[in-house]
Each structure stands twice: as structure tokens, then as C-alpha cells.
């Protein structure tokens, strides 16, 4: 691609690959205009669906079709799906003698709290977890130098077993990585590819299980995510793309393609994280600093909380039981309740909704693709909230068959419970809404936040159908339905800054911290993170840094994250910051116990240029007259709802429920007793009037 062509590139494209649709948000930096594109996802061949979307954006499938695109930011679930489905590379572990079972022992927890048995299959079988002689003590002293001949022998044994990737995990390498570094170098000399992970490089932090799990999952994902991104990048270059391909991380920031290939474990919650960051930015621009987000897709309901304009970060998460990833990520609570969640009556006569899902293939019964069991979408179709005669996805899905929805609900729910089909459909939504409200309470009430002080922001394809129900269930006074709910995650890709996090265990009393050495360590982490930022080739408005310590009193188990400024990096400054944080969290400080500094955390954030969210707002006079009427069954009776084309409603329009607002990527159901007002950014602000 020529330099002139690079200079002509003016599109920024955010891409989110979902189970049903691949969503693209396209921003033309030259004109300031934005548009959305949806194409069907190609399950198992995500890159093909991605490229179909790019072709639709450019209108050109030739060799120069993508040359006008300057940047592509991709939120990917390839890594997450590979872990959930256990479709990962054959991976081996080389570890300290006596520690081959760390991955399987976990924290001695169980999948089910009650019962005599609990099954768990680690991602690496015991036969591929091999040991060598080496030992570093917890204080970093060298006890036994690593036997490199054993390391090479075990690496060859793993290759003979057909392993494609390997993780080198030595105990206490966070305190002194010398043995692990030497072993990794020896393995890389004989390993036939680049899929060699050093646990101390991925996570130089105390706690052996979390470090082993995170590093092992990283190794197992390298071939999967790496090959996907390399194939994707090659396809893009073949179409004339000469810009940067960036990948969204679980922490809400973005990283370069190469970094994603090196540490794919950081993409574990890539897609949902992008949506949360978009919601935080949109809500802040609309005057709401506190917001609870709810992403309703086909399979899951992902909830997060944004307080003071900032999304909450968690230190670690579990992709599923036993698959622990310790890396900073947006705090997201996920339950199996989405449009495709299957409703059934259990042996005890109780109505259950989810976690089993019909997904996108075959999909809900109304899709007519062979599924005969009812889903949440089927309930919405039967009750008239989704019009069966109008295709979903802007025409990408065929018309729906409400008769199939009624048959499925009648057979599997209504008859076992002795209800009519309509009453059964309402019961399905009641149970689904109650489960979703429970997830909202987990991220709010259980963490000390009053949900009534927050706005609720639904997104995803199903978010708008349940906004009023969530407000009723939880007591939220304002709902914010973004302009393009179905493509909010793709929008978040375009808006996200570039961020890199690093951690280093110190494990020392505050009084014993060597501050000059600590300042040097902060500088080295800053330099390493800056190298990652520079590798993406992206221009930043500015670069910020975030420094914090994990601290606790001697004798405590759990740490408290204490943010500090650079000028506070001294004994008095860190002590004051710790006591302030402890007072805020627990209402008091303790006198007497020794204060320990467990970990140093560092984040470097490259702020990307922001676009004016006003480009999302409706332009011109628009249209306020209804398209027609629609019969909707709600709370035991039929209502006549006005039907509107949502994207044509001008700023300031007020719509009274009952009403149906339709757009290509979602449907919004305004219940009786609720109003919706279009704000200056095109959001629909929902409030309860009765």
C-alpha cells in the first residue's frame, strides 16, 4: 500500500463478533459521519464473517477494498469460546518437582458446594505436566539451580506426545526468575514454534495456582488466537488494508495484534468489556456518572457497574470453574439468560430459564431451524413484543414463525404447568427478568451500591426488550437505551484507549521498602508498558499512568488495592494512602499491626483521539408519527401499542408506553406507565410515570 493511500485512509472500524451477528461500527474521520453494519456470523470461521462485514463497509471485495480503512479495532470472543468449548491447543507444563498438581488441586474448591462428589478436568492432563529439579525460596534466594538437561529432556518428551504449546512454571519465580528464565531459553532453543510461555513473564505475582492457571491458559490459547489473528491480518492486507489492527483487552483497553498473540489470555472478556467502556462514555456524555450496564445477547446476560464515570476493575475472573485468569479486567457478572435461553419445567414442577441456550444455530423455535424447545425470544414473539412478520437484524434473518413459538411454549411449559400459552410466555419472561435482576443486585447491592442511585443502560440485541422490567425489578429510576444497542460493543472498540497493565510482587513490610529501588522498578514497568504502546503504531492525545499497591495488615489474607501518585512514592505518602483507603473500605484503621506491601501494580494508558458523540444524534426533522399499531400481551391483558421507527425520532421526542420502537439492531418495548425521551445524543431516556 502506497504512502498516498495510507494518507487517504480515513475510516475507523470497530468489530464485535457475536454468536448470531458480526457487528461493525464505522466512523468516517473525514466527514465525522458514523454508520452501523451487521452481517451474519460464521460459526467456527469467525474470520470469514469478519471479512464479509469489511466488504460490506467498503462496498468493494477487490484487492484494494480495505485501503480506505485507517484502523480496525476488534473485540474477540475466540479465546473465551475456545476455553469454554475446550477447543484449545495440546499443551504441556514443565514445573518444579513436587508441583505438577497445582493446576488440578486449585484452591481445594468444588464445582458444587453440596454433595459427596465434584468432577473437574484440568486443561492439561497429568501425563503432560512434567517436573524438573529446581527451587527458589519465597524470599528469592536460590536453593537449587535448575537442571537444564532435565528441562530439555522433558521438552522433548512433550513434543513426542504431540504438544503444540508449553508453559514453564516454577515456584517462587516471581521473587527470582533466574531459574525460569534459563529453562525457558533452553526450551525455546528446541521448541519448533513460538508457543512457549513463561509464567513469570505473564504474571510475576505471588499465589502459585493463579499464576500457573493464567500462564497455562495463555499457552493453550497462543496457537488458537495467534493463528486466527494472523489469518485475519493476512486477509485484510490482501484487500489493501495498510492500517493498524488492534485488539480489545479484558481491562477495557486495546492492544496491538502482536501483543494479543503473545498474551491472548488478556482477551478473555474482550467483547463485553468493549460494550461497558462504550456505555460509560455515552452515559457520562449524557450527564450520568453512575450507571449499571446490562448486555443481553443470545446466550448470556453480562452486567457491570460504572461509578463516578469509571468502570470497576477486578483482579481476576473464572471463565468457568477452575479456569482462573488473573489479569486486570472489567468487573462483569455473567448469567446464562439471553434471547436463546431455553425454558423448561424440571422434575419438581419448577419453571427454569437457562443456562442452556439454543444459541444462533439452530436458534429459537421461531427461527424455523429445527429447535422445538421454547426460548426467551419465543416468549417475546408470542406476546407481540417482537413482530414476527418483520425480520430481525435489518433483514438478515428471515421472518419469524410465531406459530412455532406457541407450539413450543404450549408443549414444554404451558401443559406441564396447567397454564395458557400466553400465561406461560409471561411466566418465562418473569423468571428470566428475576434472574437478570439478581445479577444486577450482585454488582450493586452486594458491593455496597444502591441501584436506585444509578441509571440502567441495556445494550445487546435483547436489552431494549427488558429495560422497563429491569427498572421495575430493581427500582432504578432512569433507563438509558443507547442509539445503537445491538452494536454498542463495536462502538466501544472505536472508543477504547490503549492500555497495558503490569504487576510485580514485593511481599515486604512497609517499613522495609527500599524506595530508590522501588522507583527504579516503577520506571522499568513504565518502560516495558510504553514499548507495548509504541508497538501498535497509534497516535495518542496523551499518555497517563496508574500506580497502586496491594496492601494489608500482617495476619490478614486479602489485600486492599491502594492507588497512589508518583509524588506519594515514599513511606509517609503510601502510609497515608493506605489508611485513607482502609478507612473508606472498612470504616476504621487498625493501630499496632505491621502493614505489608504485597504487590506493585502499574498501568500505562495511551489516550486515543475521541470523536464527538453528537455524530450519533438524529439529524433533521425526522418523523414522530407512528408506523402503525401492534397488539402486545402484558400483565394478563392485550394492549394496543404504537409502533415507531426509532432512528427517525428527532431530539426531544417523547414516546408514551405502551409502545414498540424498532430499529435494525434491536427492538425497544416501552411498557404502560413508562415514557421514553430522545436526548441530544440520540439515546432514549426511559422513566417511570406511574
UniProtKB/TrEMBL annotation:
Domain Acetophenone carboxylase-like C-terminal: 523-680
Database matches in Pfam families: Hydant_A_C, Hydant_A_N, Hydantoinase_A
Entries under InterPro entries matching the protein: ACX-like_C, Hydant_A_N, Hydantoinase_A, Oxoprolinase-like
Entry superkingdom: Bacteria
Record-annotated Hydantoinase/oxoprolinase N-terminal domain positions: 13-190
Domain Hydantoinase A/oxoprolinase: 211-501
Protein name from the UniProt record: Hydantoinase/oxoprolinase family protein
Amino acid at each position: 500500500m502506497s504512502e498516498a493511500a495510507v494518507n487517504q485512509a480515513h475510516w475507523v472500524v470497530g468489530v464485535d463478533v457475536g454468536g448470531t451477528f458480526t457487528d461493525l461500527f464505522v466512523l468516517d474521520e473525514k466527514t465525522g459521519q458514523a454508520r452501523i453494519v451487521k452481517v451474519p456470523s460464521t460459526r467456527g470461521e469467525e474470520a470469514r464473517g469478519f471479512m464479509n462485514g469489511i466488504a460490506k463497509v467498503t462496498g468493494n471485495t477487490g484487492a484494494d477494498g480495505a485501503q480506505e480503512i485507517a484502523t480496525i479495532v476488534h473485540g474477540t470472543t475466540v479465546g473465551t469460546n475456545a476455553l469454554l468449548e475446550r477447543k484449545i491447543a495440546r499443551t504441556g507444563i514443565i514445573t518444579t518437582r513436587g508441583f505438577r498438581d497445582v493446576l488440578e488441586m486449585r484452591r481445594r474448591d468444588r464445582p458444587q458446594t453440596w454433595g459427596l462428589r465434584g468432577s473437574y478436568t484440568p486443561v492439561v492432563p497429568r501425563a503432560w505436566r512434567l517436573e524438573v529439579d529446581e527451587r527458589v525460596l519465597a524470599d528469592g534466594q536460590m536453593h537449587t539451580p535448575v537442571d537444564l538437561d532435565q528441562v530439555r529432556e522433558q521438552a522433548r518428551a512433550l513434543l513426542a506426545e504431540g504438544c503444540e504449546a508449553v508453559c514453564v512454571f516454577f515456584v517462587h519465580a516471581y521473587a527470582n526468575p533466574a531459574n525460569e528464565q534459563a529453562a525457558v531459553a533452553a526450551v525455546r532453543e528446541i521448541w519448533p514454534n513460538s508457543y512457549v510461555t513463561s509464567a513469570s513473564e505473564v504474571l510475576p505475582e505471588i499465589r502459585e495456582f493463579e499464576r500457573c492457571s493464567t500462564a497455562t491458559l495463555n499457552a493453550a490459547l497462543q496457537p488458537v488466537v495467534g493463528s486466527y489473528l494472523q489469518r485475519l491480518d493476512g486477509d485484510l492486507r490482501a484487500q489493501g488494508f495498510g492500517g493498524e489492527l488492534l485488539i480489545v483487552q479484558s481491562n477495557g483497553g486495546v492492544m496491538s495484534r502482536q501483543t494479543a498473540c503473545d498474551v491472548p489470555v488478556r482477551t478473555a472478556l474482550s467483547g463485553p468489556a468493549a460494550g461497558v467502556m462504550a456505555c460509560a462514555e455515552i452515559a457520562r456524555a449524557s450527564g450520568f456518572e453512575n450507571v449499571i450496564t446490562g448486555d443481553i445477547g443470545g446466550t448470556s446476560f453480562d452486567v457491570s457497574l460504572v461509578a463516578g464515570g469509571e468502570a470497576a476493575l477486578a483482579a481476576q475472573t473464572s471463565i468457568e470453574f477452575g479456569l482462573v485468569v488473573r489479569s486486570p479486567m472489567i468487573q462483569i457478572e455473567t448469567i446464562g439468560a439471553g434471547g436463546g435461553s431455553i425454558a423448561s419445567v424440571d422434575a419438581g414442577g419448577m419453571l427454569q430459564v437457562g443456562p442452556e441456550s439454543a444459541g444462533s444455530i439452530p436458534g429459537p423455535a421461531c427461527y424455523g431451524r429445527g429447535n422445538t424447545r421454547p426460548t426467551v425470544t419465543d416468549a417475546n414473539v408470542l406476546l407481540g413484543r417482537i413482530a414476527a412478520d418483520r425480520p430481525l437484524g435489518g433483514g438478515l434473518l428471515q421472518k419469524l414463525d410465531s406459530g412455532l413459538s406457541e407450539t413450543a411454549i404450549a408443549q414444554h411449559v404451558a401443559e406441564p404447568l396447567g397454564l395458557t400459552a400466553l400465561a406461560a410466555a409471561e411466566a418465562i419472561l418473569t423468571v428470566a427478568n428475576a434472574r437478570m435482576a439478581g445479577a444486577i443486585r450482585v454488582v450493586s447491592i452486594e458491593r455496597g451500591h444502591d441501584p436506585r442511585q444509578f441509571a440502567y443502560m441495556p445494550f445487546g440485541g435483547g436489552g431494549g426488550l427488558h429495560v422497563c422490567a429491569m427498572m421495575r425489578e430493581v427500582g432504578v429510576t432512569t433507563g438509558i437505551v443507547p442509539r445503537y444497542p445491538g452494536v454498542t460493543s463495536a462502538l466501544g472498540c472505536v472508543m477504547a484507549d490503549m492500555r497495558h497493565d503490569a504487576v510485580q510482587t514485593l511481599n515486604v513490610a512497609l517499613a522495609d521498602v527500599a524506595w530508590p529501588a522501588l522507583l527504579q522498578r516503577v520506571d522499568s514497568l513504565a518502560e516495558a508498558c510504553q514499548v507495548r504502546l509504541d508497538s501498535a503504531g497509534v497516535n495518542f492525545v496523551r499518555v497517563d499512568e496508574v500506580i497502586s499497591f496491594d496492601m494489608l495488615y500482617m495476619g490478614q489474607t486479602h489485600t486492599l488495592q491502594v492507588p497512589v501518585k508518583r509524588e506519594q512514592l515514599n513511606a509517609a505518602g503510601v502510609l497515608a494512602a493506605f489508611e485513607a483507603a482502609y478507612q473508606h473500605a472498612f470504616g476504621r484503621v487498625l493501630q499496632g499491626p505491621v502493614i505489608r506491601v504485597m504487590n506493585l501494580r502499574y498501568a500505562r494508558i495511551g489516550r486515543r483521539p475521541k470523536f464527538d458523540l453528537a455524530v450519533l444524534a438524529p439529524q433533521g426533522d425526522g418523523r414522530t408519527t407512528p408506523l402503525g399499531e401492534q397488539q402486545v400481551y402484558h400483565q394478563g391483558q392485550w394492549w394496543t401499542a404504537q409502533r415507531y421507527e426509532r432512528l427517525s425520532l428527532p431530539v426531544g421526542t417523547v414516546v408514551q408506553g405502551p409502545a414498540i420502537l424498532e430499529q435494525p439492531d434491536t427492538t425497544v418495548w416501552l411498557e404502560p406507565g413508562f415514557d421514553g425521551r430522545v436526548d441530544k445524543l440520540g439515546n432514549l431516556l426511559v422513566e417511570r410515570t406511574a
